[in-house]
Write a structure and sequence with these properties.
With about 260 residues, this protein is an alpha+beta fold. It has two domains: about 10-200, no CATH class; about 205-245. The protein has helices spanning about 10-20, 60-65, 110-120, 205-245, 250-255; strands spanning about 35-40, 50-55, 90-95, 95-105, 125-130, 135-140, 155-165, 170, 175-180, 180-185, 195-200. The strands form two sheets. It has a seven-stranded mixed β-sheet. Strands 5-6-11-8 form a four-stranded antiparallel β-sheet, with helices on one face. The radius of gyration is 35 Å and the shape is elongated. The N and C termini lie far apart (about 125 Å). Residues about 1-10, about 20 and about 205-210 have low confidence and may be disordered.
Length: about 260
Amino acid sequence: MTRKAFTTLLAAFSILLCAFSVSPLPGTQAKPTITIQITSVVGSGGDGTFKMEVILSKEIMALLKGLPNFPETNVCSEFNGSLQGMSGWTKTEQDGGLTCTASTPFTDLDGLRSITKQAVPNGSFDRLEIAGGHFYYDLAANIGSSFTWDANMPYGVDAWWIVEVPGNVVSTNADVKSGRTLKWNLMTMSGSTHIRAESTLSSTALEIDSTLAVIGTLCLLACCCIILLAAGGLVFFLIRRKNGAPGKTPAATRAGNPNS
């Protein structure tokens, strides 16, 4: 089966569960959950990394590990081919759960546009550019009901579209915002939803420039004070030298005074 869109990750996982005849856990235990995260990390030059993560909760892993012949060592390979160029998945185990990760770099926004098109074949960018010191991201996702999931299913699914923008966020319709990281919940997204974000570039540089401006101003004021003090001291010295040392009478005055 050819899987060219990230929506097939759900299908791949469903097949994996069905293949091993996994049954639901008792109601007293936490519901097994799979989390899918598709992340674009964009730099100020338009370059960056496109990353996909499939996170299997410890409940799912506990369930799968109890099955005979479960391919625990290469479970992440089940997701190979989900996107062109997104092979070679790596796995990270933590607290009983498993995270499968694959990423690919892009050198400019055209590269990001191409990778995103593979992930969302029906999607299109209304705007993706860096202009006037701002980054603009407007994706018409058009995913329809790709991530519809029956709440009565014994396995839960979370799916997030994530964009890490360069600079400070100016505006966005993200469901979750944390600094420069924006997240949209694909499970609640309708077919007409736009994924929008705008940010300013080089916020760090601007902050540094502001700090340097303050330091520069203080240094300039200090230099002015030093110059004024030096000039005042020089004027005072010249005046004293012109009038002679205090308490002394000029020699010509003493010679013309018979009483001296």
